[in-house]
Structure formats: structure tokens, C-alpha cells
């Protein structure tokens, strides 16, 4: 461009809406100006989210619809903000430092995994779902495997069930440790971040030893688990349990009693049990409001009814309760892991059905039948009877469900994952309303969103 | 309502694995059925999703239910009685609309947006029925069976076009 030439403004910049820019615009998905928002919608932000049959009726006169726009400011947080745990984008309407309205804009990590699942066989499917909630991959695999097995109608050997429980509880500890780390980071405690990652690494090393991978393990598959536990696993589990349990008391010293941490979490982001139930919130968020709902206890799956453990509940439903619940759940999980290690039965680690389970490598060279089964399973997959099923399990973030429809072929006709984070995110406008913008980070963290699962 | 009997007032039902009842209401009876279940102790709407049965029309349904292309599946949970109920509504291709459950369960807000976005079913009365996962200018509804993956050029904002 020479100096004389006038710089030509691209057309899209001229078309830019007054309240947004086209480059980042998601149009109608974004928060719109107060004057353009219906009073009913504003009322939803004002805590009238809950139009329960017996609940208070929304009083439209209480809503400040006529507030001039120059008094408030809509700012954008994310999707690249370090404390939004990935690519969560929040649009906040602020009055000074007080948050009036919040809108979450999601979908930046949407990769169409439910569509992909329709193209993959049941054998391949576990590889797909394990990438959803990347902090607790075992749970995704488990819910996929359980729903496939419910349609197949196969009975798991006891050892497969108990190995699944062991890996899931280890994964719950690692997921909560990761949450402790990021929560500490969000609130300015970098030591907590380093500690959390350090302890989590022990568990991931055990996963690597057992499954071959640290994350996205593809270990729990329809029909059992991929491999038996490695030799000397009891010793590894013993070391993990001892170390992590000891370190949780160090976290107590570092955070639980620390005045700055308590001030930043106590009474921040409160929620009542009615609000949580109406919004479909599950997991530690629901338990923090005092509802003792844990699927491991309420509707036991695997063999959780044979274990002795406590369901941790909070009282106030604030950020500190959610922190305390997750810390206590680490200890409960370690208690469960110790019981599982003691009670681990011997036997097969996968179902001995040649139509579902591939034959061991050694038999392929000697048996024609085994070779055919191996070839069939890895090219066609196994056929699953027609039907539909919804299987829920308790993931570290809440109820993880899988709704699966089969048309009798080797691929799921429809596979829908009910992600706990996707639903739990809906309580964020409620938690943030009336709070300070500096508390927003603390609230986002306490919801523990994993965007891989939110967007799927 | 007693904990033993789930009142489903003349709606065809079946049994299922891990669920107490599967109800098949008509579109007209859908909201009133869910409302009566809500007041009957089902405090939480756990999940709402949709299935496109375009290429699988011969599925098993009760005799009184005529199969349609779409089916919206709602999973309800009662925490007090530890029960689950599934509601499956048939939605025709010619008029893919359904009343919203937002007024009964506010937690269905995001789920209905997801079904609208990916399956193209309109929820009448929803406060903010916009796309949630796909970009705003995306054309079509990806989870429909006739939206085959791999057959359409990937759309992105300001992409130079098909190569």
C-alpha cells in the first residue's frame, strides 16, 4: 500500500453491531442489552429461575427493567481466560463491580462426538467417549460400557466389576486433586496447584502402568476391562493411598484454615437445595446444599452396595462447602480403594463370550475359530439387540448418564451422553448474581466445568 | 401419590431396564403428564434428548403409539423415592415442535437448546431458543440422520470456501 492510497475499511467492520464485534460474535447466543430483554427473561436472572409449583411467583414489578444502559456494562470473560477452565465464555453485565446478569456462551470445543459415535462400532466407541470428560475418562468409558452391556444382557465377572470400581475411585481422586489444584490456582495459591498436580501424577502413573496411557485410557470396554491389573498393584495402591491421604491433611494446613482462602470462599456463590434440584444440578454441587444424593449409595451400580463409605453433604451450598466436600470425598474414595484392594476377587477380567470379547493373542495362531472371532470383532464389531436404555453413574461432577438406542446393528443408532457439567453450568448465573466480579473466578472454579464434556 | 403407584392417567407405558416406567404421551398430553409427575414427586429432570428415527422406523412401541420421525426422550428422577421415569414423545417431521418444559423444570433450558440446535425441534415458549453448541450461522441440524457426516463441506466463519 502506498502512502496516498486510503486504507479501505473491510465491509464487515462497518457492519459491526454496536454492542459486539463480528469477529467474536455468536449473535443471538450472546447476552443482549437490558432494554431488548423481556422482563420474564430478566426475572430469570433475578433468582426467579425457580418457578416451582409451590415456589414464589415472579413479581415483575421487582425487576429493574427500566435501568438505563449507560449505568451498566456488559463485559466478556473468556473463552481464553485462564480461569475459565478451557474455553468457557461468560458475558457479564456489571453495575460497578457487582454482577447483575451472566450468560454462558459455550460450544467452542464442540466436536460432534455424539454424531461420531453413530459412525463407530461398539468396540470402537469407548475410544470416542473417553475424550469427553478428559479429567475422568474412566467414568465415560464405564457409562458407555454399562449401557452397551445392559442392551447386550451380559453378566460381568466379579473381578471385572471390582477392577472397574478400583479404577473409577482412583480416577475420582485424581479428578478431585486436579480440581483442588486449579481451584487453588484460581484463588492465588500456586503451591496448591503444584501439590495437586504432584499427587495426581502418582495416580496417572499407575494408570499408565495398567492401561498403557495416562489419560484417555480406553481401558473399560464393553465386555470387561482391557487388561488385568499389573503385578504388584497392591503395593502401588498402598503407596498411593498412604501418600495422598497424608497430603490431604497438608491441604488442610495450607487452605482449609487459611483466613484469606476462607474469606474468598465462605458465603460466596450460595445456592439452596430447591434451586439446585430445579436446575438439575447434581454431584458435589447438589450435596453442598445438603441433599444427600449420591448414586453410589442411592441407586448402587457395580458393587458399591458392598462397600462401606459415607456420603458427604454440606450445609450452606457455598464455595467453601464445595471445597470441603471434594476434599472429604478424596478421603472417602481412598477408604473405598483400600476396601476394594482387600476384597478384590480373582477370576476373569472380561466376560468369556467369544462374540463380545476378542480372543487372547496366543490363541489366534493355533485356533481357526479364534482367528475368525478376532477378525469379525475388529472389522464388523458385535451386534447389539434392538432397544434403548439410560444408564446413570456418579462421576466426580455429578450424574453422568448415557442414553443409548440400538437398531440391532454393530453401531449405536443414537448415543447421547448426559454430561453433568453441561447441566451444572446452568447454575452459574444464579451463583454469580449479586456477587463481586472478583468472586466470579471462585464460583466458576467451584462448579468444576470440564469443557470437553460440556461441548462434547 | 403413594410411592408404589406412578399415576400415568391413561398414557401407554412399558417397562425398561433401570427405569420404573416408560410413558408414551401424545404431544397434547406431554406437558400435563410431566406436570403431574413433577407434583407427584419427580423433583428433577435429569436429561432431555431427541432421537431421529428416519432410518430405523420399525422400532418397538406400544400398539397405541404411532411412530413418527423424531422422538424426544425425557428422563425424570425422584430423589425421595429413588425412582426414574422416562417420557418418550413422538414428534412428526412435518411439524417438529413441542411445548417447553422450562416452566416446570428450569433445568431443561440448556438441554432444549441443545436439542433445537442439533436436532432442529422447536420448543414453544422457551425463553431463549438459540443455538448452543454450533456456531450461530451454521446451516442445518447435525444430529439428524440426513445430515450425514463427511458429505457436507465443513462450514466455518470466513473460510475461503470449498477446496
Automatic annotation (TrEMBL), chain A:
It comes from freshwater metagenome. Residues 186-456 form the NADH-quinone oxidoreductase subunit D domain. SUPFAM superfamilies: HydB/Nqo4-like. InterPro entries: NADH_Q_OxRdtase_suD, NDH1_su_D/H, NiFe-Hase_large. One of its GO terms (molecular function) is quinone binding. This is Unannotated protein.
Amino acid at each position: 500500500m502506498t502512502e496516498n492510497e486510503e486504507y479501505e475499511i473491510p465491509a464487515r467492520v462497518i457492519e459491526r453491531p454496536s454492542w459486539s464485534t463480528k469477529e467474536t460474535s455468536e449473535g443471538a447466543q450472546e447476552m443482549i442489552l437490558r432494554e431488548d430483554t423481556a422482563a420474564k427473561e430478566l426475572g430469570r436472572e433475578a433468582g426467579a429461575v425457580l418457578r416451582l409449583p409451590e415456589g414464589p411467583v415472579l413479581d415483575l414489578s421487582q425487576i429493574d427493567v427500566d435501568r438505563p444502559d449507560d449505568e451498566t456494562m456488559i463485559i466478556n470473560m473468556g473463552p481464553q481466560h485462564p480461569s475459565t477452565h478451557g474455553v468457557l465464555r461468560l458475558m457479564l453485565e456489571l453495575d460497578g463491580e457487582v454482577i447483575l446478569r451472566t450468560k454462558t456462551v459455550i460450544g467452542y470445543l464442540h466436536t460432534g462426538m455424539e454424531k461420531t459415535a453413530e459412525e463407530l462400532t461398539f468396540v470402537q466407541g469407548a475410544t470416542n467417549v473417553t475424550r469427553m470428560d478428559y479429567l475422568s475418562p474412566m467414568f465415560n468409558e464405564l457409562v458407555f460400557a454399562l449401557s452397551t452391556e445392559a442392551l447386550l444382557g451380559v453378566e460381568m465377572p466379579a473381578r471385572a466389576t471390582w477392577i472397574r470400581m478400583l479404577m473409577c475411585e482412583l480416577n475420582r481422586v485424581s479428578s478431585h486433586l486436579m480440581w483442588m489444584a486449579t481451584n487453588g490456582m484460581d484463588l492465588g495459591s500456586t503451591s496448591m496447584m503444584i501439590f495437586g498436580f504432584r499427587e495426581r501424577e502418582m495416580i496417572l502413573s499407575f494408570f499408565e502402568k495398567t492401561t498403557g496411557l495416562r489419560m484417555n485410557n480406553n481401558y473399560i470396554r464393553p465386555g470387561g476391562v482391557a487388561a488385568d491389573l499389573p503385578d504388584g498393584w497392591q503395593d502401588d495402591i498402598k503407596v498411593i493411598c498412604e501418600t495422598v491421604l497424608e497430603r490431604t491433611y497438608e491441604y488442610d494446613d495450607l487452605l482449609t484454615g487459611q483466613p484469606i482462602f476462607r474469606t474468598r470462599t465462605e458465603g460466596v456463590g450460595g445456592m439452596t437445595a430447591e434451586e439446585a434440584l430445579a436446575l438439575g444440578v447434581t454431584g458435589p454441587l447438589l450435596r453442598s446444599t445438603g441433599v444427600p444424593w449420591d448414586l453410589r449409595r442411592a441407586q448402587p451400580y457395580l458393587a458399591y452396595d458392598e462397600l462401606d463409605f459415607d456420603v458427604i453433604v454440606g450445609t450452606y451450598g457455598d464455595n467453601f462447602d464445595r471445597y470441603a466436600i471434594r476434599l472429604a470425598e478424596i478421603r472417602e474414595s481412598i477408604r473405598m480403594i483400600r476396601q476394594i484392594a482387600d476384597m478384590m476377587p480373582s477370576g476373569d477380567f472380561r466376560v468369556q463370550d467369544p462374540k463380545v470379547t476378542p480372543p487372547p493373542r496366543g490363541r489366534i495362531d493355533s485356533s481357526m475359530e479364534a482367528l475368525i472371532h478376532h477378525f469379525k470383532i475388529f472389522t464388523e464389531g458385535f451386534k447389539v439387540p434392538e432397544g434403548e436404555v439410560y444408564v446413570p453413574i456418579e462421576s466426580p461432577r455429578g450424574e453422568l448418564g448415557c442414553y443409548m438406542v440400538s437398531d440391532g446393528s454393530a453401531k449405536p443408532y443414537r448415543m447421547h451422553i448426559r454430561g453433568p457439567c453441561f447441566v451444572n453450568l446452568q447454575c452459574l448465573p444464579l451463583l454469580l448474581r449479586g456477587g463481586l466480579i472478583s468472586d466470579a473466578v471462585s464460583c466458576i472454579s467451584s462448579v468444576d466445568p470440564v469443557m470437553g464434556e460440556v461441548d462434547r | 401419590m403413594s410411592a408404589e403407584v406412578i399415576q400415568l392417567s391413561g398414557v401407554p407405558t412399558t417397562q425398561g431396564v433401570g427405569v420404573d416406567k416408560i410413558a408414551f404421551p401424545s404431544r397434547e398430553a406431554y406437558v400435563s403428564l410431566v406436570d403431574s409427575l413433577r407434583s407427584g414427586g419427580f423433583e428433577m429432570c435429569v436429561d432431555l434428548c431427541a432421537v431421529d428415527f428416519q432410518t430405523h422406523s420399525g422400532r418397538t412401541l406400544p400398539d397405541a403409539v404411532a411412530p413418527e420421525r423424531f422422538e424426544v426422550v425425557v428422563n425424570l428422577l425422584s430423589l425421595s423415592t429413588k425412582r426414574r421415569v422416562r417420557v418418550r414423545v413422538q414428534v412428526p417431521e412435518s411439524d417438529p415442535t413441542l411445548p417447553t418444559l422450562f416452566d416446570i423444570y428450569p433445568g431443561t433450558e440448556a438441554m432444549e437448546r441443545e436439542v433445537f440446535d442439533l436436532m432442529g425441534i422447536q420448543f414453544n415458549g422457551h425463553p431463549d431458543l438459540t443455538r448452543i453448541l454450533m456456531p450461530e450461522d451454521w446451516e442445518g441440524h447435525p444430529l439428524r440422520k440426513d445430515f450425514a457426516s463427511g458429505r457436507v463441506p465443513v462450514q466455518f466463519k470466513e473460510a475461503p470456501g470449498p477446496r
